[in-house]
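Data availability (excerpt). The following record was deposited with the supplementary files.
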Amino acid sequence: MRVVAYSIKPFEKEYLVRANQKKHDITLISNPLSIDTAMYAEGKDAVVICPNDNASAPVINKLAGLGVKYIATRSMDASFIDKNTAEEKGIKLANVPACSPHAVAEHAVALALALDRKLIKAARQGTILDFRNEDLIGFNLYGKTVGIIGMSSIGLATATIYKGFGCKVLGYDINLKIGHDHVPLMPLDEVLGQSDIISLHAPITDETRSMINKSSLAKMKDGVMIINTASGALIKTTDVLNALEKGKVGWLGMDVYESEKNLFPEDHKNEEQKCQLLKRLTEHPNVLITPHLGCLTKEALEEIANQTIHNLDLWQEELCLGDACVCTKKCSARSDAPNTTTHDNLNLLP
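Predicted structure:
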């Protein structure tokens, strides 16, 4: 299969080369997909993209005109793709359905620990030999109640870690009715009202978009900690910032941001005016924002590359992708093909 992969970071190349092993003719480019760069897909069967790319209707129409039949995102999030236009043009869509649950879960808990124990402030003070600790008092995780919003594989992995700390864990999932492994499922309002820490792991849908807003914040405990490693669009940023400034929210940790497109993961240190709202968040002492580090482990990058190539394999064999299919109308078949990636014929463009 002839493929062009957009928005490729240098560290991604090694993993894709290893996963591909010469089966697919893949051209890797650093350019993001846009109406102007879609031309690089001419003569290709498939494009591989990420959430920072433009997969709007005009771009998909242009790709279809160039002969593209498949679009694969190397992310769990596929909400940025105009699926209806893809369907109209007969373009099949795929994602990475499970982006290393343990990597994301560990990062979510790391954000909570760093905020709780004031590790960033302590480290900054240490660089100037200021080792006073009177302003570095944290709290025990042990005995706290943690609400997991979104009981997918990542939510379950996060729950397991918190259980190991001796936390009481409550779960909520819009699609599930039965809990898992001693994590009871409860109505959303009850989870919000009882939790000391709320960890977000829900996908973006019409029902979950901006679910953390003025109304839901009012139902939470005073001083609640909110951690978001799922999608920035789950949070209404202006409402949460207001709650932070009033003390309703005690701590906020995010690996994502509501308006992150064209911000994450790039260098904007000389563009302070680009996002004043984000700047206000970063200046708050109880906020910690990281640029999509949840899946930035060796193991996670390998899994993403393997799944991406596996999706191309199945398409080439005209097989259903199963859970990796994110088309508006999924086929009823399920492929039994193993997740093998015996495929290095990649053209590395600057």
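Summary of structural features: The domain at 101-289 is CATH 3.40.50.720 (Rossmann fold).
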